[in-house]
Amino acid sequence: MPRNSSSAASQPDIEDLIKSEDSDAVAYNPKRFPTHHKAVRHDFQSPELLAIRTELLEWYDAHRRKLPWRGDPPPYLTTATHTSQKKSTEDVAAGKKRDLDEFMKAPSFNEARKVAPYETWVSEIMLQQTRVDTVVEYFLRWIDRFPTVAALAEANEDDVNALWAGLGYYRRARMLHAGAKYVMEKYEGELPSTVDQLLTIPGIGPYTAGAIASIAFGNREPLVDGNVIRVMARIRAVGADPKNKQLIKFSWKAASELVGECDRPGALNQALMELGATICTVQNPQCSDCPVKSVCLALEERNAVKLKCESSTFAKVSADECSICDYTRVMEWDRNLIEVTKYPLKAKKNDSKQEVICIAVVSAPAEDLTAPKRKAANSIDDTSPSDWKFLMSKRPKGGLLAGQWEFLHTKMSDGNTIPPYSKRKAFTDTRLMGLLENAALSRSSRSINERRDVGELTHIFSHVKHHMGIEHVHFKSKPQLVPGAKSEEMRWLTSAEMRQFGLTTGVKKILHLVLDPTKTRTSRVSPPMSTKSTKYAFSPT
Description:
This protein is an alpha+beta fold and about 550 residues long. It has helices spanning about 45-65, 90-105, 115-125, 130-145, 150-155, 155-165, 170-185, 195-200, 205-215, 225-235, 245-260, 265-280, 295-305, 330-335, 370-375, 420-435, 440, 495-500, 505-515; strands at about 355-365, 390-395, 405, 410-415, 450-460, 465-475, 490-495. The chain folds into two domains: about 10-85 and about 110-340, Helix-hairpin-Helix base-excision DNA repair enzymes (C-terminal) (Endonuclease Iii, domain 2, Orthogonal Bundle), CATH 1.10.1670.10; about 355-515, Nucleoside Triphosphate Pyrophosphohydrolase (Alpha-Beta Complex). It is about 35% helix and about 10% strand. Strands 1, 2, 3, 4, 5, 6 and 7 form a seven-stranded mixed β-sheet that branches. A hairpin with a 3-residue loop joins strand 5 (about 450-460) and strand 6 (about 465-475). Helix 10 (about 225-235) crosses helix 12. Its EC number is 3.2.2.31.
């Protein structure tokens, strides 16, 4: 599970950890670090496996994060404590007093609780590509609303989407929902304990299956995520990027060896991920705090170079020796000799798709306003946004943001250049003429209080970047939808109803921009369109 919760800016740079006489230094053997090497160089020896298990579990028990899916009571701690923090005399004295207080106090009943396998499943799905501190609140709300597999299986899709809204990667929610239904049907509501059985459940892959089997059921099963790959690449000095198939295969093999003779496989797996998330981070690894620094080849290499060993000990490249390292990129990992962060290599990023999107936030006063409010609603400022309704559309069940609600949304083109407002307005007119009755759109109708360009936003998804031009159209009264537009996928929603259905991060950004009180309104009503081919222009005269 991706566990990036600590701020890189708050962590020391790797160079700050390097000293001429480093207490972390491992005895250097120049024969261990030739660029020319065989794959056996990366294999663990039995004493190394034992040392990693022992040291890592001790560190995890002392410094792990306190989280609800681990059975911990609140308050939750989403950043790990570190081993090398200097303590003042006052801190030590305060610690001794706390120890005495702990000894003298009555037994606490607010201890760690037993975690259901279902909770482990939910947490692992939520934590994929998402920060720990973000997940905590979502997890608590989810378990409160859907406490069991049966409760989730019986839920309707809108309730599931609403609770997931804002967490991103919405396919996870759909697959979790489908998986719950499958478990009810095939396993009578009880999650199976073996990896093979877990892999039959929709949405559960090798990583999640390994996590559930080891953490929830105590089986000696490995798991590998991005944090584990990074830890393995550094401990064994593997010159490949995290998406390299050979490195991934090696990481599964190494993780299997580590967990193979461990009495606490679930804790060890979590410790590996915790290490990658809090100590062995992407940019600023805290090597002096690392519990497995004694067996880390990347650190040994770094210390060797820092001690100014002769560069001649690094032999020239042989392109067909090690089957794990990526020799096509050898210059990248061979030239950064003084950095632990040279392992693993940076993954080559594919250029994300870019799209220009036209967004129309269409609003109107709610029908149930009191008579005085209705009478005063001639100006947009006469009613509060809490008294408005917004025209929202529901996205299709498959694809990006599946099943989520959004403002009127039209793709204009590929690329990243947002066109002028006049052009975007024409797009909106075309869309609205297919949704609203003609009376609301005619030039003679003075049904609009305000129409304005509110600005631009960029919203980034995992594989696509949206460049959005946003306008706000506010009617004096709610226009009727044409018969063909009336469906469950197109609704006028109040702010309370929007919250009930759940707001995505993108919708929240747009709404904040529209309702931003610091933005001045340049015009109440924009001039009418001049498109001669259009009988009914949206903008009134």
